[in-house]
Amino acid sequence: MSFPATARPRFSFVLLLGSMAALPAVTTDLYLPSLPVVAAELDTSDALVQATITGVLLGGAIGQLLVGPLSDRYGRKAPVMVGVALHVIASVLCMLTPGIWPLIVLRVVQGVGNAAATVCAMAVIRDRYSGAGASILMSRLMLVIGVAPLLAPTAGGLIAGLWGWRATFAVLAVLGLALMVVVHRSMPETLPPERRRPEGLVGALRGYRVLLGDGRFLALALLPGLGMGALMSYVAGSPFVLQQEYGLTESQFALVFAVNGAGLVLGAQVNASLVRRFAPVSVVRVAIPVAALMAVTLLALMVADVGGLLALLVPLWLLLAVNSVVPPNASALALTRHGERAGAAAAMIGAFQAGVAGLVSPLVGVLGGDAVAMAVVILGAVLAALAVLAIATPAYRRGGWVD
Fold first, then answer.
1. For 308-338, what is each residue's pLDDT tens digit?
2. How far is the C-alpha of 14 from the C-alpha of 142, rounded, in Å?
3. How far apart are the two ends of the chain, measured CA to CA in Å?
4. CA–CA separation, 399 vs 339, rounded Å?
5. CB neighbours (10 Å) of residue 209?
6. Do 64 and 21 contact (CB within 8 A), yes or no?
7. How far apart are CA 316 and CA 74, in angstroms?
8. Pick from 175, 195, 86, 72: nearest CA to 122
9. Helices (H), ranges, 275-401
10. Cβ distance 99 to 42 under 8 Å?
11. What is the pLDDT of residue 150?
C-alpha cells in the first residue's frame, strides 16, 4: 500500500531508515581523516589509499544488484540482517589487515554488506510511498544521513588520534552490531508474503532485463549515480586537497567537511519543501544546470589560482547543496515506474549510484589529486548528468513529461 504525499512518517521510522541508508556514508567518512596516515603506515601511494574508498562504492554496486531481487523474494528484513552481519565481519578483518591490497579487498566486501541496508531502506520507502511522497521521505532521510559528514570525520580523527586508524574499524563493527539489534527489534516488514516474487535467479535476471529495457528508467537511475560521482570526487580528494595542498590540520579538515555536510542537509530539506509545490522533475531540471554553473565557477577559480581557500569552499558549498536535491527526486521518479519490483529497481538505482561514483572518484587521484583535478572531475560528472537529462528524458521538451 502506498501512502499519499501528505502523509507524514513517524520520526522513529525516518530515523530507522536513515540509519540504514547512512551506513555506507559512515563507513566512508569515519575513515576519511586517516587516509594520509594509512598511506604512510602501509607505505603506499595516495591513489591506492583512495582505492579503499572506491572499493566500498564498487562493493555497494555489486551488493545492491544481489540484494535487490533477494529482498523482493524474502522480504526486506532478512537481507538487512545478513548484509550488516557481513559488514561487521569485514570491519573486524579490516582492523587486522597487514597491507593495502587486503584492505582494498575487505573494503569491497564491506561495501557488499552495506548495500543490503541501503537497498532495503529504499525498497521500504517504495513499499509505502510513491512520487512526491517518496521524494519527501528520501529528503528527510538526509537529516539522518547528514550526521555522517557532520560528525563522522571529527569522530574518526579523534579515534585515530587516540588509538590509531585501525580503531575506526572497531567502531564500525560496533555500529553494525547496534544497527542489527535495532533492525531486529524495530524494523517493520513492509513486503508481506503474498506480494513477494517467488522466482529464483532466473526471475531476478528477467526483472533486471525489464528494467534495462526501460530507457527512461535507466536515465533517471543514472542521475543519482552521476550526482554521487560529483560528491564522492570531493570526498575522495578533499583529505589531500585540504590537508596537503591548503595545509589544514585534521581538526580543521573535519570542521570544513562538517560545514559542507550541512550544505547537503540544507539542500535536501529545501527539496522536501519544494516538491510539495513543484513536481520532482521540475526541481531536477533546474537544479542540474545550476550545479553545472557552480562547477564551472569552481574550476575557473582553481585554474586561475585566485582567492585562496575561500575560492574553493564557497562555490563548492553551493555546488554540493544544489547537487543534493538531484538523487532523491531522480530516484523517486525512477522507482515510481516499477513499483511491482521495487527491490530490483532500488538495487539498480543504488548500483548505478555506487558504481558510477566508484568509477568516477578515482579520476581525481589519476589526474594529480589537486584542487584542479577535483574540480575537473566534479564538472565532468555534473555535465554528464545534464546531458543524460536533456537527451534521454523529455524533461526539457514542452509537454513531454506526462508521468
1. 999 999 999 999 999 988 888 888 888 777 7
2. 10
3. 19
4. 24
5. 9
6. no
7. 42
8. 72
9. 280-304, 308-323, 326-336, 342-360, 363-366, 371-392
10. yes
11. 65
Helix (H, G, I), strand (E, B) or coil at 31: coil
Question: How does pLDDT run across 170-219, given as a tens digit for each residue?
Answer: 999 999 999 999 998 888 888 888 777 776 556 666 778 888 888 888 99
State which amino acid sits at residue 202.
V
Grid coordinates representing 173 are 563493527
- φ, ψ (nearest 5 deg) of residue 3: -100, 150
Specify whether the CB–CB gap between 122 and 350 falls below 8 A: yes
The torsion angles phi and psi of 339, rounded to 5 degrees, stand at -65, -25
Residues of the chain with pLDDT under 70: 1-9, 130-135, 139-150, 199-205, 339-343, 399-403
- The single residue listed with the C-alpha cell 513486503 is 191
| d(C-alpha 145, C-alpha 156), whole Å | 16
Amino acid of residue 111: G
Residue 129 phi/psi, 5° resolution?
Answer: -135, 160
> What is this structure's pTM?
0.73
Contact 285, 333 (CB under 8 A): no
C-alpha cell at 258: 562538517
Nearest in space to 35 (alpha carbons), one of 51, 53, 49: 49
Partners of 129 in beta bridges:
3
Instruction: Note whether 87 and 113 are within 8 A (CB).
Output: yes
The candidate with the shortest Cα–Cα distance to 232, out of 122, 378, 33, 30, is 378
